[in-house]
Design a protein that fits this description.
The protein has 8 helices and 18 strands. It has 330 residues and is of the alpha+beta class. Strands 1, 9, 10, 13, 14, 15, 16 and 17 form an 8-stranded antiparallel beta sheet that branches. Strands 2-3-12-11 form a 4-stranded mixed beta sheet, with no helix packed on it.
Length: 330
């Protein structure tokens, strides 16, 4: 256990997509192309599909916010609270009490202090940095070994090249008004003269069973509760879809991470543990303990919020019968 309660955390892992993976960035006509990044791998610069680190962070923030709301039974939040929980806040200046509110959020919500947020013209820096996830191919193998040397022995050999791991598929968007007649349903305000439309578009995807390498780490030391928040977020991400088009069957993945935590850069006895996400959800015991402490902390936040003059007006619980307090710019 750290004497000052702070840890430096690093993680590296290998993932495989169990379904086609879409992470579109560029659109030309009715074609949407996978996001790409040029990286130097060995002595070669290669352009490869990637999952952006920001896409991980965005999903993590949403999962952390939803977990808080569901666990605490929150029914109403102010616009400012919603933006802070789900989007990381706003840089616009706020009221005179904005700094006090931000400090209450920062002190009591480890997931917010972990991922960072902005309020009242002030930024609270994120404590975790997330890498791009890069598919493992012949061209990127040297990059994977250089970026994550600890897992070199775990990297599978591959003969696949970067231009072999993507393909195009067609998707449709269409109007469904004609289905109303099947149940004698009348739809109001429908333009009878409008022509039925069906949109066909093509998306580029990474083929299933492609191996990815990925990592993340603390930028600044994290508390035990922030470490637990990170682990809880990983658990919540286990069944989510990565990239886009998740409701259409895209994006299911397995991940196997090794996490190492130490009290300082010269800590002679760093600790490590394994996390599996996806079809098999598993946390080694030391990591499960950090996660459990965070879960206990979240369950006690309802009492903290009710007794905090800054938090109580912006967060309302089911059955409280209270009227919402100040909105975003008040």
């Amino acid at each position: 256990m750290s004497k000052n309660g702070k840890y430096l955390v690093s993680a590296y892992g290998i993932g495989e997509n169990l379904a086609p993976l879409v992470h579109s960035e560029e659109r030309l006509g009715n074609k949407m192309f996978f996001r790409r990044l040029s990286i130097k791998s060995g002595d070669t610069v290669v352009t490869t599909p990637v999952l952006s680190g920001n896409s991980f962070r965005g999903a993590w923030r949403d999962l952390a916010a939803l977990h808080l709301i569901e666990t605490l039974g929150v029914s109403h939040v102010s616009q400012l609270a919603f933006i802070t929980l789900f989007s990381g806040g706003t840089l616009t200046s706020g009221s005179a009490g904005a700094n006090a509110l931000a400090q209450s959020l920062y002190t009591n919500f480890p997931s917010l202090s972990l991922l960072g947020f902005s309020m009242g013209g002030r930024m609270y820096a994120s404590r975790v940095g997330v890498d791009f996830a890069v598919p493992l191919t012949q061209e990127t193998m040297a990059y994977a070994i250089a970026a994550y040397p600890e897992q070199q022995s775990d990297l599978p050999e591959t003969t696949v090249t970067s231009d072999q791991i993507t393909a195009m598929t067609m998707l449709t968007r269409k109007q469904d008004e004609e289905k109303a007649a099947l149940v004698n349903l009348i739809i109001k305000d429908v333009d009878e003269k409008a022509k039925p439309t069906q949109m066909l578009f093509n998306v580029e995807y990474v083929v299933p069973n492609t191996t990815f390498v990925h990592g993340f780490r603390s930028i600044y030391p994290v508390s035990s509760l922030e470490f637990g928040a990170l682990l809880k977020i990983l658990e919540l991400s286990s069944q989510r879809s990565y990239g886009g088009q998740g409701s259409r069957g895209f994006g299911r993945m397995n991940w196997r991470y090794t996490l190492t935590w130490r009290t300082s850069l010269d800590d002679p006895n760093p600790e490590s543990g394994q996390v599996n996400l996806g079809q098999e959800l598993h946390f080694d015991e030391p990591l499960a303990n950090f996660k459990a402490k965070y879960e206990t902390h979240v369950k006690g936040l309802s009492e903290v919020i009710s007794g905090d003059q800054h938090l109580k007006p912006i967060i309302q619980f089911r059955g409280s019968g209270e009227v919402m307090g100040p909105k975003r710019n008040e």
